[in-house]
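Chain and conformation:
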Amino acid sequence: MSAHPAPAPAMTLPSRRRLPAVLAVGVSAALVVSWFGAADPTTWLLETVWVMVGLPLAILLRHRFPLSGLLCGLLAAHALVLIVGGHYTYAEVPAGDWVRDWLGWDRNPYDRFGHLVQGFVPAVLVRELLLRTSPLRGSRWLAPLTVCACLAFSAVFEMLEWLAAVTGGQAADAFLGTQGDVWDTQWDMFCALIGAVCALLLLSRVHDRSLICLSRERSSNSAPSQRR
């Protein structure tokens, strides 16, 4: 009696190899399209500069330090959040207006959502960097240090917003997106904290599996060169 064939994986190895390229093309196209008809060109530049820097950096380092499939997908999603916010400005994103009207809120919540993502996605990025470049694998300090790094990044971003407000005056209002909330800075950092904690609680095991897949892919790539 012949053995039953093993079930096919959800995503084949060639598909995983193509994923970063597909995501990079999609993000690049969205970035170019978002420039046309942007509500405020200065805000568009300030919000999307992270994409303009991060995407080329990931491409340049793709062979030396490839990222896991999960992280690639999350970074692409974060880039789209920034691109949409840059195109409309965070206080004027139509989807946020719809949620505001539906729930009867006083403000467009897209800015809050953006800062939630600002903690959620960097948490996976920091976790991956620490797992692959530090002795923290299996350490109880991994999660707390990851959250601290995300909070530090959020604080730096708020300082940049403060600098934009000082130098730009009212011209920076669209970038700040405070919508009249005097506690906006505190809310932004709190949302980043919640996002980071949720990412660790929800995605740690999924991230571990994605890292295993990445390790197997790198091993399969190095095997032919070793045979030669």
About this structure: The first helix runs from residue 13 to 35. Confidence is low (pLDDT under 50) at residues 1-10. DSSP finds eight helices and no strands in the chain.
